[in-house]
Amino acid sequence: MAKVKYEVENQIGTITIDSPPVNALEKQVLEELSVIVNDIAEDVNVVIITGAGNKAFVAGADIKDFPTLTAETGVELVKKGQQIFQQIADLEQPVIAAIDGFALGGGLELALACDFRIATSRSQFGLPEVKLGILPGYGGTQRLPRLIGSGKAKQLIFSGEFLSAEEAYKVGIVEEVTENSALDEARKWAEKISKRGPLAVRAAKKAVNEGLDQSVEEGLHTEATYFGTLCETEDKNEGVAAFFEKREPNFTRK
């Protein structure tokens, strides 16, 4: 029985991790997630990742695998997870994490691989791997410092302490906290983004992501290059025409 589900509605794809009781990132979950992400169709404009149930978004890796790990198998384990999470980060489409409940260890690392995060007020966040005598291995030591700064990231990684949703919002781990359904709020954002020029949104994602690893001067060149590329698209012409004609644009990804 599948533990990761995928559905598309109105050009918005929703990936749901459904592995009770806490949606742990066991081998089957990671493999199914990789296949789904790899097969996301071109006509999907936005992707949402969420967890089933009301206990956890994803509570982390499957600790049952840990007792027999060696140096070699440990590297293999985390590189597999890193590769899958990088697939998510590298998607052309924007990816939104809709978090309700625990987002711990690999669960937080999965959320960090998304473009932005929306959480319910009861959610909790943390990288508690040091409590097990290991470190975050699915990208936590790299993505969290880039998102919130090295000092705060080190404090959280070294201590393994949890943050409330409000605390996670204050330090910049999540972009929005809601008293309502995180998935409903994520869908609202996905619907807004889906109405924008899909080629423009994807180019903007590339410009931001590439620019983070460049100097400002290099990043400005990257931005200008993508801008120029968009200027030769039919979608640019349609967007401008719709603006002057005071109507909604009909983008065709051309």
From TrEMBL:
<dbReference type="InterPro" id="IPR029045">
    <property type="entry name" value="ClpP/crotonase-like_dom_sf"/>
</dbReference>
<dbReference type="InterPro" id="IPR001753">
    <property type="entry name" value="Enoyl-CoA_hydra/iso"/>
</dbReference>
<dbReference type="Pfam" id="PF00378">
    <property type="entry name" value="ECH_1"/>
</dbReference>
<keyword id="KW-0456">Lyase</keyword>
<dbReference type="InterPro" id="IPR014748">
    <property type="entry name" value="Enoyl-CoA_hydra_C"/>
</dbReference>
<dbReference type="InterPro" id="IPR018376">
    <property type="entry name" value="Enoyl-CoA_hyd/isom_CS"/>
</dbReference>
<comment type="similarity">
    <text>Belongs to the enoyl-CoA hydratase/isomerase family.</text>
</comment>
<protein>
    <submittedName>
        <fullName>Enoyl-CoA hydratase-related protein</fullName>
    </submittedName>
</protein>
